[in-house]
Amino acid sequence: MRISIQHLKEMKKRRQKIVMLTAYDYQMAQILDGAEVPVILVGDSLGNVILGYDTTIPVTVNDMIHHTKAVVRGSKKAMVVADMPFMSYQASNEEAIRNAGRILKETGAQAVKLEGGLPITDRVKAIVEAGIPVMGHIGLTPQSVYQLGGYKAQGKTLDAAKRLASDAKALEDAGAFAIVVETIPSELACHISQSLSIPVIGIGAGLGCDGQVQVIYDILGMFGDYVPKHTRQYARLATNIFEAVKQFSSDVHAESFPSDKECISMGAVFWDALRDNPA
Question: Is 142 helix (H, G, I), strand (E, B) or coil?
Fold first, then answer.
């Protein structure tokens, strides 16, 4: 049985930290699910880390469905949350419901995530009333990167902090079951977490949140020397993969791969017969 909304609410009540990591494919989902990660986010960050875009803006609903289906197939216990990509919910309640419903229906995910505060609360309420669980996302919202003027910390002034606190409360009132707060001051994130009855999951928002989320490729060191400020590298897989590929190439050039143990032999009798009776 998969982790449910109620499970997450109970974790908050017990002050048990919630772990959330991104996955974009079947194999990574299997690993995270086996490690008992309770929430797997299929983030539109796949636009950056998988598809090579500069931002998340080009990601489509079809992209999200394609990757979310793989993640759902690779997991059995984790709650799978799929990001709703840019312009899949902003235009109208009807379009938001249609796209959210399509994502859940075609992928088997358990929830969707939307970026934004007060301006999208009507969308959140409409989607929730249609029977689709919604996770909110405020602070640094990558889909608004051009409006924000880049990937900058948010909520650093008193007025901005008050707006984010109001956004969080509005999302809870609209029916969101949890909220991601990204790159905001730790004190503000802690205040928001203490003010809400739903889980608040931070990324670059300090220890006062009810849980933490990270992009899996960041914590695994898949991008060489690039480490976001909010990330701690737990491995350096980019270096390991590079070295493995270079060694493989060297072995191929030196004709030391494949060796006899990596080959299948027909045996002398079969080879002689084939040689004497070519096709």
Answer: helix
Does residue 184 share a domain with residue 262? Answer: no
Instruction: Provide mean pLDDT across the span 171-195.
Output: 98
Structural domains in the chain (count): 2
The partner residues of 137 in beta bridges, in order of sequence, read 116, 180
CB within 8 A of 109, min separation 6: which ones? 42, 68, 71, 72, 80, 81, 82, 103
113 plus 182 within the same structural domain = yes
User: Are 158 and 272 within one domain?
Assistant: no
Question: Catalytic residue at 182?
Answer: yes
Buried b (16+ CB within 10 A) or exposed e, 167-189: bbbbbbebbbbbbbbbbbbeebb
Q: Are residues 33 and 162 in the same domain?
A: yes
Same domain, 11 and 89: yes
Cβ–Cβ < 8 Å for 176, 81: no
Q: Partners of 19 in the beta sheet? A: 212
Whether the predicted pLDDT of 31 surpasses 90: yes
The single residue of 182, 187, 243, 255 carrying the catalytic annotation is 182
Q: What is the pLDDT of residues 1-28, one digit of tens each?
A: 899 999 999 999 999 999 999 999 999 9
- The structure's pTM equals 0.94
139: left (phi over 0), alpha (psi -120 to 50) or beta: left
State the residue range of the domain holding 109: 5-235
Residue 150 has pLDDT above 90, yes or no: no
